Amino acid sequence: MAPATPAAVAAIIPAKDEADRIAATVTAVRGIPGVDLVVVVDDGSSDATAELAREAGAEVVRHARNRGKAAAMTTGAGYVARQEDVEGRVGGSAARRPLLFVDADLEGSAANVGVLVPPVAQGRVDMTIATLPPQKTTGGGHGFVVRLARKGIEDLTGFVAKQPLSGMRCLTREAFDAASPLARGWGVEVGLTVDVLLAGMQVEEVPCELHHRVSGSDWRGQVHRAKQYRDVALALTQRRARRRLR
Ligand SMILES: Nc1nc2c(ncn2[C@@H]2O[C@H](COP(=O)(O)OP(=O)(O)O)[C@@H](O)[C@H]2O)c(=O)[nH]1
Ligand SMILES: [Mg+2]
After folding, report:
1. Ligand with minimal distance to 165 CA
2. C-beta 107 within 6 A of ligand 1
3. Residue whose CA is closest, atom 5 of ligand 1?
4. pLDDT of 74-87, one tens digit each?
5. Residue 18 above 80 pLDDT?
6. For ligand 1, what atom is nearest to the CA of residue 106?
7. Which atom belonging to ligand 1 lies closest to the Cα atom of 41?
8. What is the dihedral of CA 144, 147, 151, 153, to 10 degrees?
9. Per DSSP, what are the bridge partners of residue 203?
10. Pairwise CA distance, residues 115 & 209, whole Å
11. How far is CA 246 from the centre of its chain?
12. Where is each Glycosyltransferase 2-like domain found (predicted)?
C-alpha cells in the first residue's frame, strides 16, 4: 500500500513584498507532512520578505528585479532540481519530488494545503489544485478574469475548473515539465492546467480551507486584475495557436 505521507515534497512560495505575511506562511508550510524543502522565491521585493523568509526557515532565492510569478515559479523549480542533483536523486523526473506551489499571503491557513499532496504523491493524479472557501473580505473584481480563464480551459480541454486561477497546486515533476516553459506572468495557472491536461495527465480540484489577501476595488486591485486579464488571454491565445499547428 502507498505510504500515508510521501517521502519528500518540495514547497515553492513565490513572493513579492510579503513582509507582513511571509514568516507565518513559511512556518505553516514547514509543518506540512512530507515537506522537507521550502523555497521562497523573492521576486525583487523592496521590503524584508527575503530576510524574514530565511529567519522562518526557508531557503531563499532572489530575483534582483521583478520578473513575475511564472518566472519565480520556474526559478524555484530549478532550485529544487539542483538540490536533487546534489542529493543524487537520479532516475529521471520520476525520482524527483512533487512540487507544491503555495502563495505567500496565506499565513497560518497555508498549513491546509497539505491535502493537495497525497493524491499526487500516491500517484492517483498528476496535479491537484486547491479551491478556496468564500473569503472573509469580498473582492472588488467582477469575475471577468475567472470567466475568461474557465471558458478558455474548457474550450481547449473539456475540463471545467471551479477556480481556474487558484495558485495552490501540487504536481509531479513530469507534469511541471509538460507545462514548461510556463505561460508568463499571471497566465501561469491557466497555462499549467491546459498543458498538463493536453499532455494526457489527470488534474483534480481539492477543497482547501485557505484565506488570503483579497485584491480590492482600489486602483491597485484594478491594475492587478488588468494584468491578470492580459496574461491569461495571452496564455490562452498561445495554446489555441499551438493546437491549430498540431
Ligand atoms: N513572483 C512574483 N510573485 C508575485 C508578484 N506579485 C504577487 N506575487 C505573489 O503571487 C501570489 C499571489 O499574489 P496575490 O497578490 O495574492 O494575487 P491574488 O491572489 O490573485 O489576488 C502571492 O504569493 C504574491 O506574493 C510578482 O510580481 N512576482
Ligand atoms: Mg492572494
Report:
1. 1
2. no
3. 16
4. 999 999 999 999 98
5. yes
6. 23
7. 1
8. 100
9. 127
10. 10
11. 28
12. 11-133
Scanning the structure block, which residue is given the C-alpha cell 488570503?
212
Q: What domains are there in the chain, each with its CATH number?
A: 9-135+160-213 (3.90.550.10)
Please tell me the number of the ligand nearest to residue 164's CA.
Answer: 1
Residue keyed to cell 507545462: 179
72 CB within 6 A, ligand 1: yes
Ligand nearest to the CA of 47: 1
CA of 89 to the centre of ligand 1 (A): 31
Return the HEC string of 32-77: CCCEEEEEEEEECCCCCHHHHHHHCCCEEEEECCCCCHHHHHHHHH
Q: What is the pLDDT averaged over residues 58-75?
A: 97
Cβ atoms 192, 169 nearer than 8 A: yes
* Protein residue with its CA nearest to atom 21 in ligand 1: 215
Q: Whose CA is nearest to atom 7 of ligand 1?
A: 16
Asked if residue 69 has its Cβ within 6 Å of ligand 1, the reply is yes
Q: Percent of the chain beyond pLDDT 70? A: 93
* pLDDT confidence of residue 244: 84
Is 63 a pocket residue for ligand 1 (Cβ < 6 Å)? no
CA of 27 to the centre of ligand 2 (A): 17
